[in-house]
Amino acid sequence: MTKLLYMDDSYLKDFEAEVLEVVGEEVVLDQTAFYPRGGGLPEDTGIIFKGQEKYLVDHVRKEYDKVFHHFTTMGLCSGDKVRGIIDWERRYIIMRMHTGLHALASVFNRRTGALITGNQVGIDVSRLDVNIEKFDRKLIEEVFLETNEELSKNRNVKIYYLSREEAFKIPGIVKLAEVMPPNIERLRIVEIEGLDIQADGGPHVSNTKEVGFLKLVGVENKGKNNRRVYFSLEQTK
Questions:
Q1: Within 13 Å, how many C-alpha atoms sit on residue 172's CB side?
Q2: In total, how many domains does the chain have?
Q3: Neighbour-count burial of 236, counting CB atoms closer than 10 A to its CB (0-12 exposed, 13-18 middle, 19+ buried)
Q4: How far apart are the C-alpha atoms of 210 and 194, rounded to whole Å?
Q5: Model-level pTM?
Q6: Which residue, of 86, 117, 139, is where some domain finishes?
Q7: pLDDT for 154-191, tens place per residue?
Q8: Alpha-carbon gap, residue 189 to 202, rounded angstroms
Q9: Do residue 61 and residue 99 come from a single domain?
Q10: C-alpha angle 53-33-19 in degrees, rounded to nearest 5
Q11: For residue 206, with 0-12 CB atoms within 10 Å meaning exposed, 13-18 middle and 19 or more buried, which class applies?
């Protein structure tokens, strides 16, 4: 089992670990700060050191309770003590995008009752799919303006855990149209104070001021009731 260090500290940039398994070109560690691809988010990349030896991590995936780190070259063995360093510049962009996406989804839901039908966080451009019946460019632009107003209020972003029973008592905890939170008894909750609360397993910034502003870069029709919006980040308005 791999302990997921990023669940409790999104700002953890480096960590110590032990190699549990070597499977082909992948390594399983006893703990990791590398976020594995999933939930609409890309994986972290970075470096793992064994002493002075350096191994580049270019892909990370999770399978059941293990996180597999793929290396461009191999040389590690089970029992090796290592140090991992994530690509922080990349991670921080992902965190800003992710928190911004939560805020955007919340404002869409508040304004229209729309649920999320899909999402993908990227480094340059991210997308959010919402089940709005009518294609209304003006409404979408208004949602972006309102979202940026909310982000500018310096709202704290809190991470904590609740039992599944407690979490499902909170109105609006689920904003996904077709997917429920994983069937586990203890859910990780991400709350943007005064704006949004969702069960979520990815890294986030600690305050909305870090997001900057969301820039609408495109809109597509993706079916009868599905609208896809693309956005990028701007540090200042």
A1: 16
A2: 2
A3: exposed
A4: 17
A5: 0.93
A6: 86
A7: 999 999 999 988 988 887 776 665 555 567 788 899 99
A8: 10
A9: no
A10: 50
A11: middle
